[in-house]
Structure prediction request, 119 residues.
Amino acid sequence: MSTPEPLAKAPDADVHPVTGPASAPASTPPPSAPVAPPADASTDDETTSRAKVKRKSLKRKGKATSDALLGAPKDKLVDLDVRVPKSVRKRLRAEAKERGLSPDAIVTAILDAALDDRP
Prediction:
């Protein structure tokens, strides 16, 4: 078995895929040449008025970007940090396990019912 020959450098190895050959001149005209605007160019007033238009942000206070794009869910779940005695938490977990629900589902139902029943 013989050792393979080393690979030769490709003839176009110095050509960058985006900019082209390294020795090629830049495609921009020299600074002394006058530059004519394209035929479909807008006037200065139109250009500045477009630049001054401020887009409405999709991110608003209290809302997520996904809500703006997809529409807010009917009842979006949020975190609620509540401090309760350990014994209450223990009873809540036992009740959730007995019913086959999560503690979050039970607390949500209790709060919803309590707020609906108020005078």
